[in-house]
Amino acid sequence: MRAFPLLAALSLLIALEIAAQPLSSATDLMAEAKFKAVAEHKNIFIRFGSSACGWCRKLDKILEVEEVHQVFEKYFVPVTLVVMENDETKINPGGKELLEQLGGLRSGLPFFAFVDSEGKMIVSSNTDGKSGNIGCPATKAEIEWFLKMIRKAAPDVTDTELKAIEDVLNKPKR
């Protein structure tokens, strides 16, 4: 009976220690993603966000939908970087610098980019300059750009796969 409080206290201390650990750096996460992308013959999907960003959470939910997840799993290695939080320990070190390098520092969140296995830009959520960052694709134009991005970053994606993503994006929002 006396072991339970001791075990609970020990578990709490371990949990607090794990929570206090800084997040992995953008450099480390990208190195892992590049290695995996080369091995799997994929490009990399980098998503920048914040827990306080409502549109970031909406994009996360879209990417979790099975039809969308399957396509992204098939063609891309995902990297998620937290770049804005009240608590600096919850930000991926170097994430803001990578965000700036990819042209998203002044674009708002969520910002995302598809890069090749060497980290070179293929396309980003910044459109051709007319509309800026699409963020979480919601309007017809944003959805069209998102699908064009996927097609550019994954030339082997099928029309059926893109249509499945488009259908998810066009579902009425609750």
List its salient traits.
four-stranded mixed sheet
| Whole-number tally of structural domains | 1
CATH level-4 homologous superfamily: Glutaredoxin
Give the beta-strand count: 4
- Placed side by side, the strands forming the largest sheet appear as 2-1-3-4
Task: State the oligomer.
Answer: single chain
Structural class: alpha+beta
Order of helices and strands: HHEHHEHEEHH
Question: Which fold does the CATH topology refer to?
Answer: Glutaredoxin
Q: Largest sheet, described in full? A: 4 strands, mixed
Mean pLDDT: 89
At the first level of CATH, the class is Alpha Beta
- DSSP helix fraction: 40-55%
* Termini Cα gap: 49 Å
Poorly predicted residue ranges: none
- What is the CATH architecture term? 3-Layer(aba) Sandwich
CA gyration radius, whole angstroms: 18 Å
